[in-house]
Amino acid sequence: MNRHFLKTSFVFISIAVLATSCGKQRDEQGNVTSDAPKYKYFAKFYMGLPGSEKACGCPLSVPVFLTNDDKNNKRLVTVKNTFFLKDDASNVSVDSVDEDVILSIAGEAGSTALVGCNIGNRSDANSCDLRAEQSIVQEVAVLATEPYRAQLMGLGPYVFNSADTCVRLCNPNNPSDACLRLGAQAAPLVTPFKSLLQAAGSKPGSVITHASLLAAYKLPEGVDQCTRGNIDITESTIENSGTNCEISVSDYTNAHLPIDLLTSLPPKLQGQKATLISPLSGTRADNYIEFADSGLAPAFGFKASSSSPSAAEALQALYGGAVRSVTSLNGQVIITTSTGCISSEVK
Q1: pTM of the model
Q2: Tens digits of per-residue pLDDT, 105-129?
Q3: Region class of 299: left (phi > 0), else alpha (psi between -120 and 50), else beta
Q4: Of 272, 247, 242, 279, nearest in space to 260 by CA
Q5: Residues 167, 336: Cα–Cα separation, whole Å
Q6: In this structure, are strands 332-337 and 237-241 parallel, antiparallel, or unpaired?
Q7: Does residue 121 contact residue 130 with C-beta atoms inside 8 Å?
Q8: Does the pLDDT of residue 11 top 50, yes or no?
Q9: Which of 20, 101, 229, 301 could form a disulfide with 16 if both were Cys (CB 3.0 to 4.6 A apart)?
């Protein structure tokens, strides 16, 4: 489907995304907790049959597979296997192992991979006293550069979607339909990310209070339906906690939207301060935040009315998923998701 047709003008969304808010989310301590919304990840876990994999040699051990639902792109997925003593009720992990897996396009050979077992560690035959949980640490689309030669010249035939890629694709002087540009009316969509970027430029130990967030955007306390807290700034991170929450554009407008935009926040949100040099100008981005762990990152999704389900699915396939980074550069806020790029001019 044509990307230009899909660039819906999202009418209104407020700071409530931040002041308020399949893989896994994480709790206040960063431990795996509730299931993430289905639009956060394109890679999905499923369990096989006991004894169907020799690698899962422990009694009653069940293999765990990861499959790619993305019909357009290969996916690089970092999977964490976390191990616990089976007889320990404290739920304190004793070890964890990260593994990178490349999954082919959905339906093709290689689109599914064995990533673990529910009992034992595949690399240790003497680990049957352990149970295991699998979670996604990071997921990213492998994008073909051929359709965007004018923007991605010199980068090779494939790239992992990244902030560097999105800065190129969202360049207003050399536009690409690989970047979903939100118009002036939709600028409030990325307003919450301005607060995170403001935090990235603040001194370690400082706090952006919940009350000041609401006051800055002239919103009453009652709009905080998801009970998010302050933004805390450390030497290297930006953190915000609250309830596991999802809101949508339609929550804040009476207009009938053929395609609704959803944003979710995990119980604990944590981004890392980082540095980004523009590949176009060589200048440093005003502020830049990476989300190294998708379980601690926000996510974007698209939901259709009954009249336009295919358009929402196409938007999700092009631009949705967990947020990998956010930056401000040349008057734009640029959000990199696991799949695509979203930008907006924010004054």
Answers
A1: 0.84
A2: 999 999 999 999 999 988 888 899 9
A3: beta
A4: 247
A5: 9
A6: unpaired
A7: yes
A8: no
A9: 20
pLDDT band of 131, cuts 50, 70, 90: very high
pLDDT category at 53 given cuts 50, 70, 90 is: confident
Per-residue model confidence (pLDDT) at position 102 = 96
Rg (C-alpha) for the chain, rounded Å, is 21
Q: 28: which 2 tokens?
A: 């206040």
Q: Which two tokens stand for residue 104?
A: 């082919």
pLDDT in the model for residue 346: 67
pLDDT bucket at 21, cuts 50 / 70 / 90:
very low
The yes-or-no verdict on residue 17 having pLDDT over 50 is no
- Residue 4 CA to its chain's centroid (Å): 23
Q: Are 69 and 43 in contact (CB under 8 A)?
A: yes
Tell me whether strands 74-85 and 130-144 are parallel, antiparallel or unpaired.
Answer: antiparallel
Give mean pLDDT, residues 64-71.
Answer: 94
Amino acid in position 58: C
Using H for helix, E for strand and C for coil, what is the string for the chain?
CCHHHHCCCCCCCCCHHHHHCCCEEECCCCCEEEECCCCCCCEEEEECCCCCCCCCCCCCCCEEEEEECCCCCEEEEEEEEEEEECCCCCCCCCEEEEEEEEECCCCCCCCEEEEEECECECCECCCCCEEEEEEEEEEEEEEECHHHHHHHCCCCCEEECCHHHHHHHCCCCCCCCCEEEECHHHHHHHHHHHHHHHHHCCCCCCEECHHHHHHHCCCCHHHCCCCCCCEEECCCEEEEECCCEEEEHHHHCCCCCCEEEEEEECCEEEEEECCCECCCCCCECCEEEECCCHHHCCEEEEEECCCCHHHHHHHHHHHCEEEEEEEEECCEEEEEECCCEEEEECC
The confidence score (pLDDT) of residue 4 equals: 42
